[in-house]
Amino acid sequence: MSGANALCRSCGASVLWCLTPAGKLMPVNSDPVEGGNLNVRLGTTKDAHGRFIPVVEVKTGGGFVSHFATCKDAPDWRKR
C-alpha cells in the first residue's frame, strides 16, 4: 500500500499506518486474515508529505487486524 508500509520498531513485522475514523494513526498488520475486523481503503486521504494514507473501518468477515492485537511488545507502546 503506497506510502504507508512500515516495520514495527519492536518486533519487525510489516505494518500499514492507517487513519482511524477518529483521525488517529493506527498500525495494522499488512496481511489480511480470515476473521480480521478491519477494512482498509487506500487513497482516501494524504499525509503532510503527500503520501496516501489508508483509512480503516470496522467490518465483518476476512480483513485486517490492528497490530496492537498481535505484537508481543504492544503493552510497551500503550499510553499510560
Description:
- By secondary structure, this protein is mainly beta.
- It contains 1 helix and 5 strands; from the N terminus they run E-E-E-E-E-H.
- It has one helix at residues 74-77, and strands spanning 5-7, 14-19, 25-29, 38-46, 52-58.
- It has a 3-stranded antiparallel sheet with strand order 1-2-3, with no helix packed on it.
- The longest helix has 4 residues, at 74-77.
- The N and C termini lie far apart (31 Å).
- The mean pLDDT is 76.
Essential attributes:
three-stranded antiparallel β-sheet, mainly beta, 1 helix, 80 residues, two-stranded antiparallel ribbon
Given helix and strand content, the structural type is: mainly beta
Q: What is the radius of gyration?
A: 12 Å
The secondary-structure element order is EEEEEH
Tally of contiguous helical segments: 1
Q: Low-confidence parts lasting 5 or more residues at pLDDT below 50? A: none
What would you call the shape? globular
Strand residue percentage: 35-45%
The largest sheet, given as strand count, sense and whether it forms a barrel, is: 3 strands, antiparallel
Rounded to the nearest angstrom, the distance between the terminal CA atoms is 31 Å
What is the residue-averaged pLDDT?
76
Strands of the largest sheet, in order across it?
1-2-3
**Fraction of residues in H or I helices:** under 10%
Number of strands: 5
